[in-house]
Records
---
Amino acid sequence: MVKMKQIPKQERPRERLINEGVETLSNEDLLSILLKTGTKEMSVKELSLALLKEVGSVEQLRFVNYPQLLKLPGIGESKACEILACIELAKRMHQKIQYIKGTVITNAELVFEYYQPKLKDEMQECFYVLYLDPKKEVISEKLLFKGTINYSLVHPREVFKEAYLVGATSMICVHNHPSGNVHPSKQDTEVTERLIQVGEWMGIALDDHVIIGKDLYYSFFENGNI
């Protein structure tokens, strides 16, 4: 095991970043800077390589979670939090709309621009609801369900309870299809129809239901289904 202090100073990742530019560093070099230190048995570079091996590749690093990081010897709470914070910042850098609360929603494309970077790497379906005021400004955003979306899970009681709590006059439902296919399933259509019916009775309109794919979206409103 070669410790970082045994490497000539000019060859260390941090010094190379300063002198040669960040783009010249390897994936393990970049992780070494984040991790800072290794363990008694493993140098920081070896720890970086072990992390990449654990997740499969640098592309798969965006899917890593807190419990998975803690399984690796040498990564404790502090390092795990720093890695996850860095990954989340990288995701947010690609979002055109950083904060949905306070945004006036005038079309489904705005919804897509906010949720596509947020949901494109999700392996499960996530069901969000945007709650709007009379000017179509977002009062609240709530993740209600995570998993396979069906009628039994998306119960109107949970959807409309938050609407009353925040004083919403209408809402937009949003969920993703991890497959990338944005065509609504039978369950998607059933859920949408049920929410429209309950919304008419309760006086809180469903303005749209937007399905997010990898690069496309489907809007029930734009397709004349609301």
---
Amino acid sequence: MRPEEKNLKELIGAIKPIDQKSAETAQKKWNSIAKPLHSLGKLEEHVIRIAAISGDPEVSLDRKALIVMCADNGVVEEGVTQTGQEITAIVAENFLTCNTSAALMCRKAGVDLFPIDIGMITDTKVPNHKIAYGTKNMTKEPAMTREEAVRAILTGMEEVGKRKEEGYQILATGEMGIGNTTTSSAVASVLLKQPVETMTGRGAGLTSEGLRRKIETIQKAIQVNRPDPSDAMDVLAKVGGFDLAGLAGVFLGGAYYRLPVVIDGFISAAAALIAERMCPLAKEYMLASHVSKEPGMHMILDVLGMEAALTCDMCLGEGTGAVAYLPVLDLAVEVYQKMSTFSENNIEDYEELGDK
């Protein structure tokens, strides 16, 4: 085992379960608040989860960040996308000038944005943590080496460590990379042992012919590389992307540094699935924001044992769904922190009379 992979294995081995005592304290606090029990639904559950993740029932989300992993995918050569790879760099630089959907939403929601060049084919003004200048064409050879996959994951974990040191309390995940619904569908298909057709959607608006070509391309890549479903790193390296690897590192970093990490859409969910297969405990540190229109999204969330908080039929990417959820979560935290209790209002506490 190479030193970097050994280091990653040691970091994963240090991940511990979330703090159930803090979760119980947070649940008792919700139950004491002067409103019907469990009436904020998943919002209450997520606040309780955040308390358990941080180990502190006094939940605060004053500092929020979106990490966007930007990378290019060699499989674009196969005509699986509506646009060319040059779009990745254009949009990535637009994050810096607040000229993307996610950037505008971040500014409105009070979320700081951190784009990362983890593997674009060109150099830009985006902070450079490039593993390579794009992945290889996975229909001809592995998308990346195993060593590159490990380095990309460690890069994601390091970014979480930096944000933790800077005082951020919750992270959202985003990506930018033309062709990454193709790689995500490939990864999800292999890890979940599902037909490619089941896991593959139209991405950014493919025609029926384009969708057929995309499915055939993924099938060819899986046939050529024969990724091992029992080895998430092998699957990632052979049919994944640097953005997926970096995001998997963000999810693992959230578990290591005890920070909640919000899943965005299908691509982010595929990265979460990789992280969960590498470390089952990692899913305890994740929150599902919304349900993407991509067909594999529901299946990944089911496997992770999660239900998304929002259903908006979004499929934009960039982290937009995760960012859209953060202000809603803020509203729940406001109630949790400031709402008076039954006893303060001289009202008898509500009792549990049945299932939630």
---
Amino acid sequence: MSPERTAYRKIKDLSREEFILPGTSTCGGCGGLEALRLATKVIGEKVVYVNAAGCFTLLAIFPFTPFRGSWLYTTMGSAPAGAQGVRDAVDILIAKGDLPREEDVQVIVLAGDGATYDIGMSSASGAIQRNLDFWYFCYDNEAYGNTGVQMSSATPFAAETRTSEPEPLTPEGTEQKKKDIFEIWRAHGAPYIATVSPRHPVDLARKFEKAKKIKGPKMFIAFSPCPTGWKYDPSKTPEVAKLAVECGILALKEAVNGDVAHTHVPAKRIPVEEYLKTQGRFRHIFEPVRREDAINAIQEQVDRYWASVNR
């Protein structure tokens, strides 16, 4: 059953009960799975997960599942539509008296950045417009990880992917900047949006607990370090996630009915290159020739963001 805690002040306040069992077939060191594991400690087991095709499809391969909850698999672009069907069916059964109200469930979309930022955006937009009461958990590993690590619109500037490799015409790798899905959802009027990190579990738990009290579309953008696609040792996932926050590339924040608040502001941000150096996908901007232009462009982008926050 779901934990009854309503206040999270330290790591020991998180439930020790597990709602995702170990031994999944996802990659070792997956930051997205760790973030989801922490989230389920707040949400509990009365859940229907609606999975958009992606890395997390590997979590439940018939007839096995690690979840204490139900699982529905959909195409990459239709998970929010699937969530609408589940939510409507449960609501109708409860209204007709065919399902006891205490058997109600939470409906959670699980989708990667490819489905969220690109292929499934129209389906999500419609669900938000209809004010569907559901959770949207985006495990953002900044690429199409399940199909070979191709560039998505969540891939950051200067990252290397299989479809944005450094070459003479584009020595920086990815030319585009990462799409701001937080602001896109905020422009849609979603009542709750948050960024979370597996390295900040108390911050994550507080946000999921707050969202439990809010009806309507709830979006969580989970920073999801990916050893396979980002090219680092799986044991380094906590370090990579920590550095992303300390350098300011990842801003931990939430928007409640459109009002944005940052839940963690680094006291003194470290240089972004301390984060970039941990990953092989950025190696080409450090060697064989150091690309000061690319490094400075990333640092300036982060500086501009935090300057706007601190105004």
